[in-house]
Structures are given as structure tokens and as C-alpha cells.
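Q: Got a minute? One more chain.
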Amino acid sequence: MRQLAASVIVLETADLGERDRIVTFLSAAYGKKRGVARGARQRFSRFAGRLQPLARVQLAWFERDDRDLVRVSDASLERPFAAGDDLERLLLGAYLADTVAVFAQENEPSHALFRLLEMSAAQLAAGIAPQLAGRYFEIWVLRLSGIFPQPRACPQCGRDLGAGAVLVDHDRGLVCLSCAGSGHDARDVVPSAVLAMLVRAGRERLETMAGAPPSTRTLAAVEALCARVRRAFLGRELRSYAMMRQTLGAV
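A: Always. Here it is, folded:
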């Protein structure tokens, strides 16, 4: 049995029996893990208020090679996710955590993904525009996962994609307008403004982009593109994303 400790970000929790909770968390050095926090549902539990999604926590746990779940032994809060009562930020925060829970690899170092989630949660709580924060996060999750179409040069002819591109290869690749020909669907066209944001996201920090953000129309187009690529890879849509869109649409 090994005892480990690290600064982690809580991704999700689920009740286990009448007293305990299962917590899924991400650490930079150890990747995604799932563990049991015994007594976490009790009124005076030492875990009370410390295992909320997107909270950053100093966590200690025991693990064994023959068990899938670790045993969480201690937790101290480093940073809560302070979104207040802003519905859009709360829903987006749940979506960010759910996305990482799906894309992060168990027991594999996740330094870049950890930094992305920590930065996104902090900026979102600090008041950055949710639409911009969400799109920046989506671009980078797909990029870090190795499934995002390259927005620079056409893989067939080498031409720059700045004038526009077409989404092909089961929604996972981009080619220039010339190589795509005339048989493609208009819904597959990726405008130059969207390509420009993809390039900017690869070069700029989120807070820098917030100083000169893309238009609302461009952000919506980037969201649609990321959703198509994500669904093509997963074969389904994330429940947290569908719930966010449905709830915000109803509001």
C-alpha cells in the first residue's frame, strides 16, 4: 500500500451508501483517480465543504495495485470554486469538470490538462466572459487530446487555411476550400474568423484574448465546431454540455 499526497482539482462526487462519497479528482503528477472518502456524508465530517467540483484541494490518499479505488484519508481546501449564484458560470464549471473527467487518463501524468483546468476555473471565478472561457478551454482540451484539426495548413496541398477551410475526415480534419471542391455541405465550412481564433488560442493566454475578444458570432461558431469534433471522437455528447445548453436556452 502506498500513501500519496498532492494538490488536486475535484472533478465530481457521488454518494456511496449512507455515509461515504466517491470522489473523482485530477492531479498533475498522478492523473485522474477515483477514491472513497469514508464518512464524507456525515454532518461533522472532516471532508465537509472540501470536496466540491472544481475546488483545488490538498489531498492525501492510500492506494493499492489490486484495487481501482483509492482511499482518501485527508483533504484541506486550497481554493474553492467561487462562482457565486451566476447560473451560467456554475453550469460552465460543471461542464469543464465533466469534460476533464472524460478526457483525462487514469494514473497518467496530466500536467498540461491540470494547468488548463486550474487556469480556466480561476479565470471563470474571477469574472472573465463565460463564452470566451468555455471556447478557449474546449480548443485546448481537444488539442491536448490530439484530436483537434490543425488550423494552419491544408494537409493535402500545404496551402494556408487562413481564407477558410472545410471540416472533413469524419469531422476531425480540415482541408482548404480548393481541395474540398464543390461537393461539400455548406455546414462543413469553417470561416476565416473561426480559424483565426483557433490560431490565437494556440498563441495567447486567455486573459490576453479577453482584451480583444472574438465576436459573439465567432464564439458560437467555434462552440459548434468543437462540439462536432468532440462528438465525432466520443461517439456521443457530454450530458453536462447538453444540460448547460438546454438550461441556458430555457432561461
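A: The first helix runs from residue 87 to 103.
Q: Perfect, thanks.
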